[in-house]
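Working notes for the structural subgroup meeting. M.R. asked for a predicted model of this chain before we commit to crystallization trials. I am recording the input and output together here so anyone reviewing the notebook later can reproduce the run.

Input as submitted:
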Amino acid sequence: MTLAPPRFPPYPVRGVCVLHQRQNCAPHFAGVTVDFEPAAEGFVFETAPGLTVRYEPAGDLPRFFAAAAAGIEEQLRLPGHGIVVAVRAVLRAARADAFGSHELAFRVAGHLAARQALERTAAARTGAGPAGPGGC
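Returned structure, recorded in token form:
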């Protein structure tokens, strides 16, 4: 009998907070707080109602949020995790900066948020205790 891979997330993982900053000639800055909730199947990304971010031009924000969603999904679908993706990811908060925020920074922040959520659930499965808080 072959066991089916576990579904992710097995339970809600709330408040996954990541602050991605890199200072160099091409700076990165993106902050996200994401809730990961079990879903029937697949990957669904939403922004919380009323989410506001102080950033100009505000027209860039939908692209940043889409990049964060892409980063989350890419990380979760890596074959090495051995999971079935059945998640609703809800962006609860975001931070952006005029000099370092761009799509790549948010994509990396999405990768890091998904990795942190995976670590939290893996720690609970192995009894190692919860993973530490994020960098927000």
